[in-house]
Design brief:
This protein is mainly alpha-helical. It has 10 helices and no strands. Helix content is 68%, strand content 0%. Keywords: DNA-binding, Transcription, Transcription regulation.
Amino acid sequence: MLTFWRYGYETSSISDLTAAMGITAPSLYTAFGDKKQLFLEAMRLYAGSPYDMEQALSDAPTAREAAEQMMVAAVEAFTGELTPRGCLLASATASGSEASAEVQREVAQVRHQIQQRIKERIDRDVTAGLLPDNTDSEGLSGLAIAVIQGLSVLARDGADRSHLMAIARAATNAWPTPVPSTRDL
């Protein structure tokens, strides 16, 4: 996973991957089939369990706090001492040829699924009156994903953790707030 994260999908050679894993090329092919399948497995490991993500989104008091927790976790991962800077999903497929088009589609699908889960949580908050009825859940969930991916790029550019945290806070502060009911006035 770290090799793909550091060098990207296309530029990670089989010899780089087998050296990182301490195995031979035939063992890699036996275990994973090919480089693409190894990358997809690494991506699933990186993205984590969909159940855990759904649970974290559900357990947060609000969608805004869930998105903020995701951004904070992203910043911590993107600036970790033991990991490459930035996001595996963004950096591993940032450039590519037709050969990596399928991998790029798989990565895009993971991002789409994450955005969909955030959107569903936002919709739940709208229904519960925690966000205004006119909240654009599609746009707001897209904003969360765009900010996370932007934080990744900035981390790769060398931005420090405190700067990235400030951006994450600014992004979540831009979220709509519920309109107080007349009984609250």
